[in-house]
Amino acid sequence: MPKTKRAPSAARKMFGERLRAERRARRLTLEDVGEAADMAWNYVAQVERGERNIGIDNMAALANALGVPIASLLDQSSTATVHALAAAE
C-alpha cells in the first residue's frame, strides 16, 4: 500500500514559519543557515515548510545559527515582532 503524504502538523508549520521569518529578517539564505547549523540547506527548507519532524538538538542548532533563543522559534507572541522587523527592512 503506497504511503500518503500527511499535511504538516500545526506545531511543525508554526515552527517553520517562525524559522523562515527569522531567517528572512536577517537576510540569510537557506545555505547560510544550513552551513551555520551544520545541516543541508534542503533540510532547512523542508523544516521551514513543515515537512520534517525536527528534534530538539536540530531546533537548538537552527536557533543558534540565527542568533536567537530557541523560545523565539516556539513562542507565539514573537511572531508579530519578527514580521514587524522584516517589514521595516
UniProtKB/TrEMBL annotation:
It comes from the Bacteria. Residues 19-73 form the HTH cro/C1-type domain. Pfam families: HTH_3 (PF01381). One of its GO terms (cellular component) is cytosol. Keywords: DNA-binding. SUPFAM superfamilies: lambda repressor-like DNA-binding domains. The keyword Protein biosynthesis does not apply. The keyword DNA-binding applies. GO terms for molecular function: DNA binding; DNA-binding transcription factor activity. InterPro entries: Cro/C1-type_HTH, Lambda_DNA-bd_dom_sf, TransReg_Diox_bact_type. This is Transcriptional regulator with XRE-family HTH domain. It comes from Deinococcus metalli. The lineage of its organism: Bacteria, Thermotogati, Deinococcota, Deinococci, Deinococcales.
